[in-house]
Specification:
440 residues, TIM Barrel, 8-stranded parallel beta barrel
């Protein structure tokens, strides 16, 4: 191994990241709710020594036309991720377990309690992907007519996280005496109420579970707007970013590290993991044939709707050869919208060209294990990434190919571990546990 450790997370949508992945002949018909299938994928990532597996989430079905939704699996049929982590903790031993939970449509006390419980059940392998959610459909499931305004939901997220972190510190180390002879279970002098009163939340505390095994579960964040980047720089251990060309990736990497330093943090303790999708073959021709087979399964309207969803623009009425319309104002995911639009403009893509780009894998590496390892090594060694959040266009095939072909090549190059270095997710990532605010 080199002095610096490459980190790999599995970005897992059981139905496949590619929107037609569920139609692949290898894919189970109900992959999103097939626990045995999901557990098998996670065990395979664990055998390959991945740092963690990460489950994204929405808390509502997007407002897409029925002609699109009827052809998509991932938003229609998936297990709630924190419940899934609890089950996976019982059937795995070392791999980190990271789930998404929304700060817009949850409560801090519940979130603190759930992730503390997962960290104890898994013996220190839990992680929380902090999101502010994406769309109006989610809001309507929680008593609102529309999504919280962008600035409001990030202020709420900042306060939400601070409350959760405070609750995790409710009881000092050593506060649980558990002395059977004296009959004293808890030293109440070492238990602290939070008594938080803020703009969005009033939470008394204390939390009714001891401090998490890791002190604090690993925090992940993927916001790419200015507010999202600021939140990530302040609180995140892992920052998930979109796949980009290497120069924009280097610029973003440096900016994230500089922002973290601005919050008084050690830049080496915030790890940047761009997304990496791959279709791997023993030859490039084999990989291209594999992707072509799943590409043929993608309905044109679904590909167009995917672009419309991220750009928040109505493109269906425009000719395919027309230029992209001006970027509309949105209250949804502003960073992702801006990044996709800027990339399309830079490449001179028309409406049809952008749809084709997304349909052709949205920057996926389609090639041999050497091709993929070359990409990883270049980004890792030249200041563009600390590792990658690996997504899998269709399952189980692309996951099996990555773990059986790419991981051994990375190990051969001395870039990736052959055994886990520790027991907890923090140890896998080389991050020290945070001290309790009550530590003396």
């Amino acid at each position: 191994m080199t002095g610096r450790t490459l980190h790999l997370g599995g970005f897992l949508k059981p139905a496949g990241e590619y929107l037609a992945g569920w139609r692949h002949p290898e894919a189970p018909r109900a992959a999103g709710v097939d626990f045995e299938f999901i557990a098998g994928l996670v065990k395979r990532l664990e055998a390959a020594k991945f740092d963690a597996v990460f489950f994204p989430d929405l808390v509502g079905v997007p407002d897409s036309p029925d002609a699109v939704l009827e052809r998509v699996a991932v938003v229609n049929d998936a297990l709630e991720p924190t419940v899934l982590l609890g089950a996976l903790a019982a059937v795995t031993n070392r791999i980190g377990l990271v789930a998404t939970a929304s700060t817009s449509y949850s409560e801090p006390y519940t979130t603190a309690r759930v992730f503390a419980a997962i960290d104890h059940i898994s013996h220190g392998r839990a992680g929380w992907n902090v999101v502010t959610s994406l769309n109006d459909a989610e809001a309507r499931n929680y008593g609102l007519d529309s999504h919280l305004l962008h600035a409001d939901r990030y202020r709420r997220a900042e306060e939400f996280y601070d409350v959760v972190e405070g609750l995790w510190d409710s009881v000092e180390e050593g506060g649980f005496v558990e002395d059977k002879a004296s009959g004293i279970y808890l030293d109440t002098a070492r238990r602290h109420r939070l008594d938080h009163r803020g703009e969005f939340f009033t939470v008394a505390g204390p939390l009714n579970i001891r401090r998490p095994v890791q002190g604090r579960p690993i925090i992940a964040q993927a916001g790419s707007s200015g507010a999202g980047q600021a939140l990530a720089a302040r609180i995140a251990d892992l920052v998930f970013t979109r796949a980009q060309a290497i120069e924009p990736s280097r610029e973003q990497y440096a900016a994230i590290k500089a922002r973290a330093a601005g919050f008084g943090r050690n830049p080496d303790e915030i790890l940047v993991l761009p997304e990496l999708a791959t279709v791997v073959g023993r030859t490039r021709a084999e990989a291209e044939d594999k992707f072509a087979a799943v590409r043929e399964l993608l309905h044109p309207r679904v590909a167009l709707a995917d672009v419309e969803y991220w750009l928040r623009a109505d493109l269906a009425s425009l000719p395919a050869d027309s230029p992209l319309p001006p970027l509309p104002a949105t209250n949804a995911s502003q960073g992702a919208q801006a990044e996709l639009y800027a990339q399309a403009v830079q490449d001179g893509l028309t409406v049809g060209g952008l749809v084709a780009f997304v349909a052709e894998g949205d920057g996926a590496v389609i090639g041999t294990a050497d091709d993929v390892a070359d990409r990883i090594e270049e980004y890792f060694t030249t200041g563009a990434a600390d590792g990658f959040n690996v997504s899998f266009p269709y399952l189980p095939g692309t996951l099996e190919d990555f773990t059986s072909l790419v991981v051994p090549e990375l190990q051969r190059r001395g870039l990736f571990r052959t055994e886990y270095e520790g027991e907890t997710l923090r140890e896998h990532l080389g991050l020290a546990p945070p001290a309790s605010r009550w530590k003396t």
